[in-house]
Amino acid sequence: MMRRLTVRQLHRWLSLVFLAAVLANTVVVLRGGYNNQLGSLAVAPLLVLLVTGLYLFVQPYVAKRRAP
């Protein structure tokens, strides 16, 4: 139970980090100073969001299967 709450909280905070990275990318692109390192800034939290999101999505189905 504790791991599920920790993953859920991590997922929520990472969504805010991802939003900030996307906004930073948008501002830099609009100013015309884009580079690849800045573009990968948004990809890192997105990959962790993918993993935690899949974990949270699959969790109810696994719990149903384990229940008698």
Topology:
Blueprint: H1 2-31, H2 36-41, H3 43-66
Helix pairs in contact: 1-3
Quick summary:
The chain has 68 residues and is an all-alpha fold. It has helices spanning 2-31, 36-41, 43-66.
Walk me through the structure.
Helix content is 88%, strand content 0%. With 68 residues, it is mainly α. The model has no long low-confidence stretch (mean pLDDT 87).
Which percent band covers the strand fraction? under 5%
Shape: elongated
Residues in helices, as a percent range: over 70%
Quickly give the structural class: mainly alpha
Regions with pLDDT < 50 over 5+ consecutive residues?
none
- Supply Rg: 16 Å
Tally of helical runs = 3
The end-to-end distance, rounded to whole angstroms, is: 18 Å
Overall pLDDT metric:
87
Question: Can you tell me the number of structural domains?
Answer: 1
Largest β sheet strand count, sense and barrel closure: none
Spell out the helices and strands N to C.
Answer: HHH
**DSSP strand count:** 0
Jot down its keywords.
3 helices; 0% strand; 68 residues; mainly alpha; 88% helix
